[in-house]
Amino acid sequence: MIAYSLNRKAKGERTRLVVELPARLVENLDHWGVSSGKRSRREAVEVLLDEKLKEKAAGAEFGDATPAAGKAQQVNQQEAQHHAAE
Per residue in 23-78, pLDDT tens? Predict the structure, then answer.
């Protein structure tokens, strides 16, 4: 996780991530994003990733997820606590 910028310090800090995807996947992403009211492709990707990571982290509670998913859950909990303290 450290390689994935675990030590973020500023609230709302963003990291650029560039990926290559099959055209059909981008078309499906755009269709879902527009029909779901997302303002941009970036927002659609962010929402889908966030939802899936939370799903995986929740699965860790039942022992059916990878150690990385458990770490993602821990990071999500830390971020929630940090935001609640603000």
Answer: 999 999 999 999 999 999 999 999 999 999 999 888 876 655 555 556 666 666 76
Read off φ and ψ for residue 85, nearest 5 degrees: -75, -15
- CA–CA distance, 7 with 45 (Å, rounded to integer): 22
Q: Which residues contact 12 (CB under 8 A, 6 or more apart)?
A: none
pLDDT score for 62: 60
Residue 81: closest CA among 73, 56, 51, 3: 73
Report helix, strand or coil for 34.
helix
Q: Which long-range contacts (CB under 8 A, 24 or more apart) does 4-9 make?
A: 6/75
**d(C-alpha 72, C-alpha 60), whole Å:** 10
- Structure confidence at residue 58 (pLDDT): 86
Amino acid letter, 59: G
The residue whose two tokens read 């039942």 is 62
